[in-house]
Write a structure and sequence with these properties.
- There is one protein chain.
- The chain is mainly alpha-helical.
- 52% of the residues lie in helices and 0% in strands.
């Protein structure tokens, strides 16, 4: 190792190193045995890893309208006609 380093020619990066849309976060989860077995079996049928499968299912759930949103939509449609 050098005693001193010269950073005078260094560049300042103004953009993030990782893209937040494609970055992955390492985490630890505790799942029921049945859930893990289902995820592994389902992922194997699709030819993908179980973590990719679980991520896919969580994204689907995240993008799916909530029950509250669905009820509100139906109320607007039904009450509009009345």
């Amino acid at each position: 190792m050098k005693k001193e380093y010269d950073f005078s020619k260094g560049k300042i990066r103004k953009t993030p190193i990782a893209d937040s849309k494609t970055a992955k976060v390492q985490t630890s989860m505790r799942l029921d045995v049945e859930v893990m077995e289902w995820a592994q079996a389902s992922a194997e049928k699709l030819g993908i890893g179980y973590q990719t499968f679980l991520n896919m299912k969580l994204k689907e759930a995240m993008e799916k309208p909530s029950i509250e949103d669905r009820v509100e939509f139906l109320e607007k449609k039904l009450l509009k006609r009345a």
